[in-house]
Amino acid sequence: MNARSLLRISDLTDGEIFGLCEKALKNPPSASAVDPRRSAVALMFLEPSTRTRVSFERASQLVGRPTILFDDASTSLVKGESLEDTLLTLRALNISTFVIRTPHTGSLEKLRVLPGISVINAGDGVGEHPTQALLDATTLLDALGGDRSRFSGLRMGILGDLRRSRVARSWAELAPRLGVHLSFISPSGWRPQDWGTQIPWTDRKADALGSLDVIMALRVQKERMGPGEDKDTEAFIRSFRIHPLDLTDRQKLMHPGPVNWDVELSSEFQRDSRSLILTQVQKGLSLRACVLDLLGEAS
Length: 299
Ligand code: NCD
Known about the structure:
Elements: H1 14-26, E1 40-45, H2 51-62, E2 67-71, H3 83-91, E3 95-102, E4 118-124, H4 130-143, E5 155-159, H5 166-178, E6 181-185, E7 201-202, H6 205-209, E8 214-217, H7 231-240, E9 252-254, H8 277-295
Parallel strand pairs: 1-2, 1-3, 3-4, 5-6, 5-8, 6-7, 8-9
Helix pairs in contact: 1-4, 1-8, 2-8, 4-5, 4-8
Bound molecules: N-carbamoyl-L-aspartate.
N-carbamoyl-L-aspartate binds near residues 129 and 257.
């Protein structure tokens, strides 16, 4: 049997989704030592990353497994070796879990069939980023006092560069599974085109924010914009940047990071008790350890 991979939210059952978030809060793995005899976790980041890469590295330590770090310049991929051949070669060196970030949307699907190899999508182009959405859900569950029934009817809005966001795309899959009422807020040019069409969308920030319990802002992803598109950023800042006065005391603010301060969020949020941004990073560690635990070590 093939090993299990986590490439999209749809790879998990509802029970697994709730189970992962609850275990991350109550009972995450915590191995006392890393065992070099165990199969290793490869961290293949073919695009820049700080928090996701370090989070998976620390999470692997929590499940007691060694890690091997790769970037695109240090692998034979640059010599023309296919990703499949690279993974099978590394499998022979007792590396069985591959956490991969790639600029190529959908390019990880073909790896599912490789024997004894488990792949975790750490962001594929404008595809998905399932563990980010799951760690966000874990953060929300914590803010809800650990009571999963309180997801039901929670009103969450995601604001910003939706079209280019793999986090928003994973949330479009995750929200209905949790019972969260998700809505999207963005300039019309940044509205998702071929996905998320069932999610309510508006370009009226002022009207939208008042009705929400949780607001998640997204980074304006300049590196994914085409020529001339960065002029849209100035218009976005004028009409969509979130300021502390835009939120009430009971509303919570999230962001997957990295934040472009004073672009999508006013820098005054750096010291604001409504911000859950660092809690998201913290919960990500436990959640990713639970994901590694769930997928197991392929044999
Ligand atoms: C996101 C990503 O890389 O997809 N960040 C993250 O993983 N924490 C979002 C982003 O880059 O803006």
